[in-house]
Amino acid sequence: MHMQRDNEGIRLPKLLGLAVAGATLLAGMVVLPATQASAATDYGFAAEDDFVAGALDTTKVPQLTVTKYLSLDNGYAPTGSANDVVELNKNKDLTPAKGILFNVKEVQPTEGKSLADIDANDDKTYVVKPGSTLFAGVTDGHGVIDTWYQGNSDGSISTDPNTGKVTNTVASFPTGPNHYYILSENQDLSPAFLDTNPNKLDKTKYKAAANSFFGLPYATNGTDKNQTRGFIYHLHLYPKNINQQSFAKTVQSVAGSDNTPKNQTIAKAGDTITYKLSQKIYNEGNASAPKDGKLDVKELAGNSADVLLADRMSSSLKGDEGSISVVVRGSDGTSQALVKDTDYTQDTSTNKNPSRLNDTSKKMFGDAPSDDVTYWVFNFFTASGVSKVKNITTSVMELEVTYKATVTGNGDSTGTGGVVNDAASDFSDNKNTNGDAQDPLPSHTNVTNAVVAFGSVQSEHENPQYGALPGTEYRLVKNADSIDKYLGSDGNFYAEDSVPDGVQLYKATANNKGLVVFSGLPIFETPAKATDKTVQNTSWMVVETKTPKNWRNPGVPFGTITYGDVGLTEEAIVQKYGNNATLQPDYSKLNFGKFDAAASAVPADTQMKFNNVLISKYLAHYKTTDGDSPLALPLTGGRGILLLLVVGALIMGGALYARNRRNNAARA
């Protein structure tokens, strides 16, 4: 399966069986014997913690699992038990991050110091233990590292350039007492941050996770009445990156067409996604300063020009205006609900790119390649809204706009990643130290969804060569025998006039750049509606259903659209590719035949990108007057067929005239 990903703005999936370890792990490192022994759950731990009461078992090989989160705020200090995952799941602003490299090194105190002096963030307090292994691991799509490799000298993990498989040796942590480690994030070598990643994370947006110091096995007390001593042999750590940017957009949840919440952020047409826009507002009093790029309560003017939040939804999303909820929330959990037209104003009907707040000569977003987009615009605050903000007394608060949007069968008109959303924030103090307006703060979200992307272009004979042909419309069909029945969101095929309630038909229309994108496709859907959905062995075909005037419809179906990873569950797909991946088919099997325009022949200024990567398939079109079209019959009703009819009539008339003359001569 071909795949790209975009790691930002996603929801926390359920990670049952994971535990949490404390930022104050040092207190639990003292090894003391205990005589009582029982199941881990008897002492307040989950079975996954592998807590065993009593003395250290020197035969047990300890394990370490790391789960990496991107966070909008501080909080949720880890405490050491897998039971805490329930609380973590409640915070939907914690999102797992794929492609983060972590290193674990065994350490000992520097000369003259003790274990109690070790500070994980001060390398003067410790040295690497001689002869020890440098461990390295990279988070999967759930943000998890549960397999560690022997790291290279720089902490990296080598992979085979052809297969992508890791070539380093799997490494185990040593048994027995007196093994202490420091876990650190290696941002410089993390795949998620590398320039070669087309959807890399922005290092300037997230603070690196703090280092962690811990013993393994981990000595601790149980939470039973006797606080029984023992050891955790499977330690779970949850390092976090805190979002330094004052604006973010996140996916809070995904629900099926029956409103049942999904455990994974995988979406298809008919599903509903809940989004949240979050804008930080500070309450720093005298510490606040103008032109610092931070909006403070004392800077609020109450003239509906303090904060401008804008959200651009592509054709693959239809927002539900009735679901909008707006609150200001303090870091202590206190909140104030804001009322439309009383505390703020909104416009959810425009398809015009809104102007910036601090520089109205510029727009909030770059130009969209299609008019089939909708902009939702929120202006804060009125005087009433400012009064409510001032009722929140914490030093940092969040202005939160939450709403729902339904995934449609109408392909992604922006062509930036399937079921995708772009948002931006501008606010009164979004200025540099000179007082000049800065660019709005962007945020881009996506969910895991199956897509097909190709280019609709003019033939090589046109000028410009292989120029875009926008406006062409396409559908997906089962096979060449049923080209009038189109793929629906339930995985079945229907004629236009026989679509059941609750089912959407898929279509995709070439945008202004000629890019065609089907998004939110039902690759997990089966007629039997299996509970444990898996990737199906699809064999769809593409047909062109509308063609711009004076251009020829190819008139034949193209195949085949099929995806890899057949049989993998939704959870396994997210684990492998991440929870905001775009799953793409094997384009080598999508054969345009004589209508194919080789990607290598398409001029550089005409080449198209999807999800920041150049596409590999282009479908060429011919004008109705072109005689060299693979289908040369001019079947448009234009002058071409008229000329054929006239010429044919003249030929037939001449033949009849000649025959009559011969017959008359024979009778004479």
TrEMBL record:
Q: What UniProt keywords are attached to this protein's entry? A: Membrane, Transmembrane, Transmembrane helix
Q: Which Gene3D superfamilies match?
A: Immunoglobulins
Q: Does the keyword Transmembrane helix apply?
A: yes
Region (Disordered), start-end ranges: 337-361, 410-443
Q: What is this protein called?
A: LPXTG cell wall anchor domain-containing protein
The annotated regions of Polar residues compositional bias extend over 345-358
Sequence intervals crossing the membrane: 640-658
InterPro entries in the cross-refs: Ig-like_fold (IPR013783)
